[in-house]
Fold this protein.
Amino acid sequence: MPTHSAASGKKKVRSKHHLIPSRWMPRLLAHQGKQWYLWAQKAPDIAGNSNIYLAGLENPWTIKGAPVMLSKPEYDWECRGFRVNEGPAVITHGDKLFISYSASATDENYCMGLLWIDMHADPQNPANWHKSPRPVFTTSNENRQYGPGHNSFTQTPEGDDVLVYHARNYTEIEGDPLYDPNRHTRLKLIRWDENGMPDFGIPPADTV
């Protein structure tokens, strides 16, 4: 990335090594008084399609320090069709910060996983993160909701937490499911259990 020095009249080239990665599904995160960049990308030395990384920001376009890998596909439910961890989203509750993410191929195998950390722990230390060994939001055959995932979070005017995600209501797909366009947006209230963990329940049936 070229920049211009008014004093010398010469252009300088900013090292691309520290620029924000132009990768998949990034999120910006304000945490512990700092700005963070959260994203998914493929690593050449790790089997699979994408992993989830975190790095601090020096400014809006420059990463500060080395990125840290928070999660890679390792469980069976993360590796169906494709080995995928992608689409990270952030929500806080009580004394915990949570990162949801999506896993596997974008058909009925697509589902959500969950990472979490104590609010006061160092997020750049991978040992401080916990990972659910089971998916937290999955296909419901009974409700004809297939492959829920790639979510975000919002709130109602009353302050209740809401899960925003997409899913299909059919499984008949020709070719790569990534190119099937009919993953429509849904909303669902989030329940919090007595331990301060999110309970996403099951995807409700379509009502319209």
User: Anything to note?
Assistant: Confidence is low (pLDDT under 50) at residues 1-17. The chain has one domain: 23-199. The radius of gyration is 19 Å. The chain is about 0% helix and 45% strand.
